[in-house]
Design goal:
It is a single chain. The protein is an alpha/beta fold. It has one domain: Alpha-Beta Barrel (TIM Barrel). A 5-stranded parallel β-sheet has the order 4-5-6-7-8. It has a 3-stranded parallel β-sheet with strand order 1-2-3. Strand 4, helix 6 and strand 5 form a beta-alpha-beta unit. Helix 3 packs parallel to helix 12 and helix 5 runs parallel beside helix 6. The longest helix has 21 residues. The N and C termini lie close together (11 Å).
Length: 320
């Protein structure tokens, strides 16, 4: 079975200082091991792909990246450097590697220009956005130049977790809830829902957002979103119910969630054409992800869609 994985991370030179949020959630020896894998493109990464039967990975700079940089010019410059680095690495193994752009949304117009360069000149398949940019969320009006370009280019945007702009009181004294255990799910799911309820998808009806980690719980709550939307009197705020925009404009990946129950729920909730395989390498095991997707009780036609056909279509990957 062919496989395409699209939440697969790397570390560009000079961006190590921008990964403190990930580092602080792990034991130092664990992160040191993973950090080496982030910088490897030839040995362990290819071996992991081969063992897991993964034909193609779409590589992305690990979170949070340059979106936490306070100096706009520095962020814009380093984003270009990071994308050039990735393009150079892809050129050495173009059969196995594709890329997502890393963008400095501190300047939405510059981010739009860089995305265009990455797509048209470097052959990237879209961009990965690591949450808010110093407290600015993607639904805010300042980002319109960026979204205009995304719609024009017709490429997907992968919305990836990052820390909240501030720390809610509910986490006080419970650091165990930080990071990927729970807080990132809350932050990223909320970020995606901001797009839905703001009318973003009415302004940009063709834009496709991708969420990892089995959709950050969103597929499991569609009925309740619609129920509360009507009960709270928001029917006139949008032309359709929230769940309809989610099913039309949001796709998800299995990255970091190797469990048959949420997979089947997600397929039932948002449709078999909107779910894609991923591993979250190197933070999760590609072998566990392989065993999960190959042994899960799916029809072969659905398994093909999840493993590679949906990614081929959504990211316009010419392979197989």
């Amino acid at each position: 079975m062919h496989k395409i994985a699209l939440e697969e991370h790397f570390m560009a030179p000079g961006l190590e200082e921008y990964e403190g949020a990930v580092r602080k959630t792990m034991q130092s020896e664990t992160y040191d091991k993973l950090g080496k894998r982030l910088q490897d493109f030839t040995d362990e990464r290819i071996e992991a792909m081969d063992k897991a039967g993964i034909d193609i990975v779409v590589l992305s700079q690990t979170s949070p990246g340059l979106q936490i940089e306070k100096d706009v010019k520095t962020a814009v410059r380093k984003a270009t450097e990071a994308n050039d680095f990735l393009a150079e690495r892809i050129s050495k193994n173009s059969k196995r590697f594709r890329g997502f752009a890393h963008l400095a949304l501190q300047d939405p117009s510059a981010a739009a220009n860089e995305l265009e360069r990455c797509v048209k000149q470097l052959g990237f398949k879209g961009a990965m956005i690591n949450g808010h940019t110093n407290g600015i969320y993607l639904d805010e009006a300042v980002n319109a130049p960026f979204w205009d370009k995304v719609a024009e280019l017709d490429v997907p945007i992968y919305l990836h977790p990052a820390d909240s702009f501030d720390t809610p009181h509910m986490y006080n004294g419970r650091k165990e809830l930080s990071g990927a255990f729970w807080a990132w799910t809350v932050e990223t799911g909320t970020h995606a829902l901001r797009l839905v309820v703001s009318g973003f998808f009415e302004r940009y009806p063709t834009v496709r957002i991708i969420l990892g980690h089995m959709g950050e719980t969103i597929p499991f709550m569609l009925w309740r979103y619609d129920s509360r939307w009507k009960q709270y009197g928001y029917q006139d705020k949008l032309k359709r119910m929230p769940s309809e925009y989610i099913k039309t404009n949001i796709a998800i990946t299995t990255a970091g969630v190797c469990d048959i129950n949420p997979l089947k729920c997600s397929i039932n909730a948002i449709g078999e054409d909107n779910v894609m395989f991923s591993t979250d390498y190197p933070f999760e095991s590609a072998l566990i992800a392989r065993d999960f997707i190959e042994s899960t009780d799916l029809t072969e036609s659905v398994r093909q869609k999840v493993c590679y056909k949906n990614a081929q279509r959504i990211l316009k990957i010419d392979a197989f």
